[in-house]
């Protein structure tokens, strides 16, 4: 079980004021959704939480210790990041790419063993890309590549998942399968935080939400307290119509814009 905590965290978004400092606690079993318009700082936040980017102020703590003081290998054993963008620098197969997830668990020149291979194959099958194991990654479709990225983190087996728009490029069936996988991870006592553009996936699958505004303001808390239409309309500068389906709220853009919003 691992906990990720921020204390007075101000992420470093260039040319922006500090806004509200973040005091977050991501606990085992929780699924957090990070919502906000383009450019609000969602990716910057996830990269800061993963220790890939320095905060402007405050700190990130992993199990009570400053992330910056921990060895990267130790961090990588506990914390997995699904990137929004990925650069496939050299021609690797799908299987080889998934096996990269085992690297934090191997010593520097150690080859992957049978158990590593078993974990990678199981993750590929779980993400419905097992049949593509021998294919080169640069031949995959956008959705297949996205599922491989998630399979690689599943192979890594972290206790904390940070996922940047994990449903990007996915069709409806695979969106649901990925959200179910992340919920299952939380059910197993892991912690999940993900950036989402789909309010309805957040409403259905997340138990906590963080709303990030473009000026650095933020609010966070249990999902139901955050799903307030007026707050969401202010977040996106978009009027919303709300309905209820299967006991969960569903939000769709209304035709007229919110008062004071900009853009087309
Ligand atoms: N290296 C950089 N130099 C200048 N500006 C940057 C740099 N990196 C990020 N930014 C800016 O910081 C802001 C936050 O970017 P970030 O990618 O975190 O937003 P986001 O909320 O994830 O957006 P999106 O929904 O479009 O993915 C954006 O305005 C972006 O242009």
What labels would you give this structure?
Rossmann fold; binds adenosine-5'-triphosphate; six-stranded mixed β-sheet; alpha/beta; P-loop_NTPase; 264 residues; 12 strands; 9 helices; nucleotide-binding; four-stranded antiparallel β-sheet; 22% strand; ABC_transporter-like_ATP-bd
Mind explaining what this structure looks like?
With about 260 residues, this protein is an alpha/beta fold. It has a single domain, classed as P-loop containing nucleotide triphosphate hydrolases (Rossmann fold, 3-Layer(aba) Sandwich), CATH 3.40.50. It has 9 helices and 12 strands. The chain has helices spanning about 40-50, 70-80, 95-100, 115-125, 140-155, 170-185, 200-205, 225, 230-235; strands spanning about 5-10, 25, 30-35, 55-60, 65, 80, 160-165, 190-195, 210, 220, 240-245, 250-255. The protein has a 6-stranded mixed sheet, sandwiched between helices. A 4-stranded antiparallel sheet has the order 2-1-4-5, with no helix packed on it. Strands 11-12 form a two-stranded antiparallel sheet. Strand 11 (about 240-245) and strand 12 (about 250-255) form a beta hairpin. It is globular, with a radius of gyration of 19 Å. The model has no long low-confidence stretch (mean pLDDT about 95). The structure holds adenosine-5'-triphosphate (ATP). Adenosine-5'-triphosphate binds near residues 13, 38, 42 and 44.
| Largest sheet report | 6 strands, mixed
Given helix and strand content, the structural type is: alpha/beta
User: CATH superfamily name?
Assistant: P-loop containing nucleotide triphosphate hydrolases
What would CATH call the architecture? 3-Layer(aba) Sandwich
Strand content: 15-25%
Please identify the top-level CATH class: Alpha Beta
Poorly predicted runs of 5 or more residues? none
User: Tell me, what's the shape?
Assistant: globular
Report, as a whole number of angstroms, the end-to-end distance: 46 Å
Instruction: Give a list of the ligands.
Output: adenosine-5'-triphosphate
Per the CATH scheme, the topology name is: Rossmann fold
Work out the number of β strands: 12
| The number of domains | 1
Q: Write out the strand line-up for the largest beta sheet, numbering strands in chain order.
A: 6-7-8-3-9-10
- Order of SSEs: EEEHEEHEHHHEHEHEEHHEE
Residue-averaged pLDDT, rounded?
93
GO molecular function: ATP binding
InterPro entries: AAA+_ATPase, ABC_transporter-like_ATP-bd, ABC_transporter-like_CS, P-loop_NTPase
Domain ABC transporter: 4-239
Organism: Halomonas flagellata
